Amino acid sequence: MEFFTLENKNGMKLKLTNFGGIVSEIHVPDRDGTLADVTLGFETVEEYQDHNDAYFGAIIGRFGNRIGDCSFCLDGTYVSGLHANDGKNHLHGGKRGFDKVVWDAEEISGDGFTGVKLSYLSKDGEEGYPGNLQATVIYKLTDANEWVIEYEATADKTTVYNPTNHAYFNLAGHAGPSPLDHELQINSEFYTATDDGGIPTGAIVPVAGCGMDFRQAKAIGQDVDEAGVVSSRGGFDHNWVIDKRPDEFALAATAWDPKSGREMKVYTTEPGVQFYSGNFLDGSLKGKGGTVYQKRSGFCLETQHFPNSPNIGHFPTTTLRPGEVFKSKTVYAFGVR
Description:
Blueprint: E1 3-7, E2 13-17, E3 23-29, E4 35-37, H1 45-51, E5 59-60, E6 66-67, E7 72-74, E8 77-79, E9 90-91, E10 104-110, E11 113-122, E12 133-142, E13 146-155, E14 159-160, E15 164-165, E16 183-186, E17 188-194, E18 200-206, E19 218-219, H2 224-231, E20 237-242, E21 250-256, E22 262-268, E23 272-276, E24 285-286, E25 292-293, E26 300-304, E27 319-320, E28 326-336
Antiparallel strand pairs: 1-2, 2-3, 3-4, 5-15, 6-9, 7-8, 10-11, 11-12, 12-13, 13-28, 14-27, 16-19, 16-21, 17-18, 17-20, 20-23, 21-22, 22-28, 23-26, 24-25
């Protein structure tokens, strides 16, 4: 296990480890050119091994977010036995998901970028999933101050696959004040309603007229408590349906810190984005520089197919069959205003 540090011509830096494909640092300039590390995390691999229940910066797989009752039906076959690590449900790939394995790593570079290619073979039956799945994830840092993530996978049996990245952001700096004052805009008119366990019910609900409406930029903290009451999730922890065509690479969300001027735009080919407001951080995790991560001290924008998709037929499919190649791309583009 080792760390890799990527740096572009503008001085922006991104640090990652091949344990869990975890991105541990992202140093981004503010409007005055001052760099700050804008992602929550730890300093050592050992800390990630022992204390990363929050999934800081990690690759999530095989299935991002939740699958209800740890089971689903696939081509008429009942698949059960997924690990129950979120009450009665399966979360983020299970007990030993992609966030807890060592990936093969290869440094790469090209015109205007430097990067790392990560590869991992998830064997048939791992965490209850069928098929040997060969997964690759490429991280690139471009000279345009973009963090690019490219996912690819193949499988030798029909299976399901829904990877994402679980980076927590605070554009004021990971040790800065709460990002509840950040403004967020999500390019979405609908979200997927959930039960009290965070499992989508199948209902796709308009955001209009409720606190889930981010069609116009507003402070993250404006309606966060309302969302917590409605969902019993302590705040925002929902999947928004991105307004775009299937497989179109499009803008999903924009976050902006008025004080520093740092802005982050999220583009993706994925149909959904999970906005999580860090509700379950509770001050028990001590991160980089001794920073104590309190409730809502970071937020996530996890691009994905919808949670619980294998159990809901009208959701975009997460089925991957032999001979098919799964491909997905997400870009976190940093700038200032």
